[in-house]
What does this fold into?
Amino acid sequence: MKKWKTYLLVVLSVILLVQPAMQARAAVPYKTYTIDGYGYVTETQTAYTPKTTFSKIGEHSLVRPYDLKITEDGYVYIADAGAGVIYVSTLEGEYVKTIGEGELTEPYGVFVTKQKDVYVADHSGKVVVFDSAGNVSAVYTKPDHPLYGSGDFKPIKIVVNAGGDMYIVCEGNSNGLVQLTPTEGGTFLGYFGTNYASVTLLRMVQEAVFTDAQLAKMVSNLPSTPVNVAIDAQGLIYTVTPGEEGTSLKKLNIAGANLIEPDAYDGKEAAVSVGNHDNVYVASSDGYIYEYNSEGDLLFVFGGRDDGRFRIGLSKKVEAIDVDMQDNIYILDSDAAQVQVFAATEFTNLLHKALNLYENGRYTESKEPLEEVLEMNSLFDYANEAMSRSYLQEENYEQALKYARVSKAFSVYSDAFWEVRNTWLRNNLIGAAGILVLIIIAVQLLKFAHKKKGIFNPVIQATEKPRNSGYWQRLKYMAYYMKHPVDGAYGLRYEGKSSWLTAGTLLVLTTVIFIINKYYCGFLLRNVREGRYTIFNDVISIIGVFVVLTACN
It folds into this structure.
């Protein structure tokens, strides 16, 4: 009986120990990843946890929502194309008011200015502007301008800059964002942020060879159309275009030049938003959420596609993303007709604090939260890189080298190493020059002593036999072969200037030099992950090359 009681106590203890971990795992049905200094995706701490969801605004169920916008004073504006209205709620989903009832047909996009003017991209062919009281103040339809073209005007997303200029994503318009200004009832300023059409070698050959009739039957090679747009406090425009490798996310200045290149993407980008720390959030239609810094370095990626079990944190089809002032992320899922809210963890809050200080040039202050981040995860490469840049700004080059090496920040390491080398040269140049002069004098004195007294004769006599051996002479023939390859080949073929032993020696030396160069070269020249050795495969590959070359000869 005592044995059964003991077993029961053990089982209960195990359950009590495992249950919190199981609950934590159940609360977060996804893993969080980042990119290390080598460019590999690696798992890291949970950055955001699912907080809540809501599919109703008060008593109004969402029907076919397509966009949301969160204002600084804590209100959520949701464009519901199925209901034909804009719902306004609190951050918790409590009903505040409805905008556009009877005025809107298919509201696909919404944007709210600081003055509380509401711009709605109505898919039926118009942009409707409401004032803070909810009254219609302007309506813009298809631009009557020859440069616009004959295509349809079907707005799906919209942002507005401080001057009132509108940047509109129109369905099927491959020319880029439609730019309108409110003057004279809506003046068309042109297209903005046009993507480039990809041209393959096959397409170039086809265009050069095919007739006009054959080309007319081919699918048109048009640029991809952006699917979503955002704007930051500086007026920079952000667009996402699925399927655009390397430029799926764009950060465009007033001239339309791209200022960002993300180091990770999945080709299914659906929404974009700007955070509170010059960071950028991108959501894919499958529910994956990417967070970048202002330069496009990936901080986190998390989330995923719902597999039918309706687990909070996973989505069916994401249409929009935005962030409130507390760094909570709001995801609009059109298929599930709901909004999911993600809360930042302590780890992420510390990183955001450091990011905010660092982006504003307060490098020394950013080190304190960065150190706390590294206490939680010492291998989080972005924090290590930020620490190295902070120390570089403080001219503490030794510490900058340390953190740059950990994070594989080669550019920072190079800058710090340059400064360390310059400091060493300034402090030691005179002494090094004196030592070099002494070495030259010593060499000359030894040469003079050998000429007069023959002090090196015993060494020369002892090494004379090995130096005159056939093996050594064949090794020395390698230098002659490199200078005179034609005559050298004749010597190898007809004069016996080579042997299996010398060839094997050269092969061994080549292998050893290759391995040393690959694994033990300087940090700036190394392209192998530290602690990863594949020496056996290296040896086999080198021998394989020699075998193939020998067989070909």
Summary: Residues 147 and 290 are 36 Å apart (CA to CA). Residues 410-453 form the longest helix (44 residues). Residues 345-440 form a domain with the Serine Threonine Protein Phosphatase 5, Tetratricopeptide repeat fold (CATH 1.25.40.10). DSSP finds 13 helices and 27 strands in the chain.
